[in-house]
Design brief:
Residues 12-61 form the F-box domain. The chain has 135 residues and is of the alpha+beta class. It has helices spanning 12-15, 20-28, 32-38, 43-46, 52-64; strands spanning 72-77, 82-85, 93-96, 108-114, 119-124. It has two domains: 13-68, no CATH class; 70-128, no CATH class. The strands form two sheets. Strands 1-4-5 form a three-stranded antiparallel β-sheet, covered by helices on one side. Strands 2-3 form a two-stranded antiparallel sheet.
């Protein structure tokens, strides 16, 4: 089996010379689950999530892309109580207390929902988000 460095298509020397702005533009076209997977490649890609320039690029690309569709992002917050709307009850809102012992590894995670595919994706941020960024 040949190594990837022998294959000119996957030669890392070629791909590493691409301008960062071009790579960012390509990443901006990825669907959200693929974008979150791409964050694990390197620290720079991980930081795209909190980069104002990348967010502006993503918004401009997504508004011009024909095949974009809506995704819903839900953040799990370790300090808040969760509430569920129930139309069958007279008070309509049920308060659910969270467990007292919160797992530190799950204190910064989110859930991404694709309504077109009816699929959920769990996104763990771990230590990638700076303290205080979300809450």
């Amino acid at each position: 089996m040949a190594s990837t460095s022998a294959n000119p298509i996957m030669n890392s020397k070629i791909w590493s010379r691409l301008p960062e702005t071009l790579v960012d533009r390509v990443i901006a076209f990825l669907p959200p689950p693929a974008f979150f997977d791409a964050r694990s490649v390197c620290k720079r890609r991980s930081n795209l999530l909190i980069s104002n320039n990348f967010i502006e690029l993503y918004l401009s690309v997504s508004s011009s892309a024909r095949q974009r569709h809506t995704w819903f992002l839900f953040f799990k917050h370790k300090k808040l109580k969760s509430y569920i709307y129930n139309s069958d009850r007279s008070d309509h809102i049920i308060n659910h207390k969270r467990r007292e012992k919160a797992d530190k590894s799950s204190s910064c995670e989110a859930y991404l929902f694709d309504p077109n595919e009816m699929k959920w994706y769990k996104i763990s941020f771990g230590s990638l988000i700076p303290p205080g960024f979300i809450w």
